[in-house]
């Protein structure tokens, strides 16, 4: 049976890319503040970059913003990515960036919404409520979830960096490392990954050590100042995979998006070459 | 200027109640799996219980489940609660249970969606991303946010109970206490509360000690086994307020919802009487 991460790896092989392209229709990027404009903006990005996209990551917030019509636009966008994938002959995984997290009976409704109704392949989740808030998503054997681990925003340290008392004889560890360790142990279905920002290479390397098998979704290269080569060196798995480099604005706002995506894809390949992958 | 918690306290005084009534249209409760049935179910609860509701808490997941039409139903439900409030002559605060949490530019879209477009007065948020993920919600001076602190689900302990290293000379504290301490320090606008489950009275008492001024939203009485009197004794603020007892199923599934709500309201008043409030 196909799992989410075997599906993702197939696409990564097909396009020789580790690029996850964020679809974040910020109001500032739209000609008109309408759901139609948000959809058009994202469809334009998909059309211009599909050859180089290992995955797409639409952000629920910017559609939810438009209420019911935004929800329809999100649904239409996901359908359009699937159609574009079929045209390419290689299915591109769709990661819904929703950062949900709730008790089990509520999480079940969110999971059905994302996977059954919208048709996303994977979702981002917040781990603060613990394993039983994740389980309803893992109950979909072909779907996946990236748990927030170490994010790239300024306030990430408020809680994620707090030192947690270890087992007797073990030194304290940052909370985000505990999240990584538990996620690694929960990943019995090849369906759990971690969100680890690309802006802090030391953190990336520590999470990689704590979760040697997991895929990372790593935002922060480009607009937020993360260095691509350093991030890849710190976070890639031993097989030269295991890391999706997420970019949004630096593609969306490029004069030539296709060229911007191609260059980023090639830059990643080059770094991988230097690392002998 | 009115803040969210001054607004809430006005309603609490008007109805002599600390009852927050959850509006969670679980599929199992609906005659048909449609957004219309979800809306009708919630409208029925509102109509029968408005006299005793200090607040209503619609749960976004069960509307999101129905996609665009669900989003319209949620919007209609919030408008109907406002209309019912006007009929009563006392506005009932609406807390959107959404448990959102994202980086600032995304959080801004979620905040506008909840407050400007849906018209909710308050929202539940997940604190894992830190202060800058909360700020866009606090930027609405008359709105409020309850941060997840200590939840009532079985997996809550996976992260929330982890012991965090304290300042030099101070013993380690559970992560949820650190959340409470920071929330208390961030509450300069009388707009931050905490979600603290009613199922663990010791935790309630510890959070109360760490956040003496904050309002708690406390689920877990009834279906999840929390004892009302014990919870109130552990969590009430020194002024006999500061705690919303959230109930969903025990009202929604009662034969006579009005009677069930009245009895719970009175039971709370009785316990407060015993405590000399």
Give a brief outline of the structure:
The structure is a homodimer of 277-residue chains. In chain A, 48% of the residues lie in helices and 16% in strands.
Topology:
Two copies of one chain form a homodimer.
Chain A: H1 4-15, E1 19-23, H2 35-49, E2 55-58, H3 60-64, H4 67-88, E3 95-100, H5 104-117, E4 122-125, H6 131-138, E5 144-150, H7 157-160, E6 163-164, E7 173-174, H8 175-186, E8 192-196, H9 201-210, E9 216-218, H10 228-235, E10 243-247, H11 249-252, H12 257-274
Which terms would index this structure?
globular; 48% helix; two-stranded antiparallel ribbon; 277 residues; TIM Barrel; 16% strand; alpha/beta; homodimer
What does this molecule look like?
The structure is a homodimer of 277-residue chains. Chain A is of the alpha/beta class and 277 residues long. Chain A has one domain: Aldolase class I (TIM Barrel, Alpha-Beta Barrel). Chain A is 48% helix and 16% strand. Chain A has helices spanning 4-15, 35-49, 60-64, 67-88, 104-117, 131-138, 157-160, 175-186, 201-210, 228-235, 249-252, 257-274, and strands spanning 19-23, 55-58, 95-100, 122-125, 144-150, 163-164, 173-174, 192-196, 216-218, 243-247. In chain A, β6 and β7 form a beta hairpin. The radius of gyration of chain A is 18 Å and the shape is globular. Chains A and B meet through α3, α4, α5, α6 and α7 of A and α3, α4, α5, α6 and α7 of B.
């Amino acid at each position: 049976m196909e799992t989410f991460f075997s599906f993702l790896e197939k696409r990564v092989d097909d396009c020789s890319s580790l690029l996850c392209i964020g679809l974040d229709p910020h109001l500032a990027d739209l000609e008109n503040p309408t759901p139609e404009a948000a959809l058009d903006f994202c469809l334009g990005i998909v059309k211009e970059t599909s050859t180089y996209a290992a995955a797409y990551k639409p952000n629920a917030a910017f559609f939810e913003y438009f209420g019911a019509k935004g929800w329809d636009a999100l649904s239409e966008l996901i359908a359009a990515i699937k159609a574009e994938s079929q045209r390419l002959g290689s299915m591109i995984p769709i990661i819904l960036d929703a950062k949900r997290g709730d008790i089990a009976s509520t999480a079940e409704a969110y999971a059905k919404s994302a996977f059954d109704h919208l048709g996303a392949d994977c979702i981002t989740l917040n781990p603060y409520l613990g394993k039983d808030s994740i389980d309803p998503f893992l109950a979909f054997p072909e779907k996946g979830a990236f748990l927030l681990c170490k994010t790239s925003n300024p306030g990430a340290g408020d809680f994620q960096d707090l030192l947690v008392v270890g087992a007797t004889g073990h030194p304290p560890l940052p909370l985000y490392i505990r999240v990584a360790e538990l996620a690694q142990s929960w990943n019995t279905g090849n369906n759990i990954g971690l969100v680890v920002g690309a802006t802090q290479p030391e953190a990336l390397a520590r999470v990689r050590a704590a979760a040697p098998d997991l895929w990372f979704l790593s935002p922060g290269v480009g607009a937020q100042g993360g260095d691509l080569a350093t991030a890849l060196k710190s976070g890639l798995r031993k097989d030269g995979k295991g890391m999706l480099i997420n970019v949004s604005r630096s593609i969306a706002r490029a004069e030539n998006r296709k060229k911007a995506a191609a260059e980023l894809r090639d830059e990643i390949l080059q770094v991988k070459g230097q690392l002998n992958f």
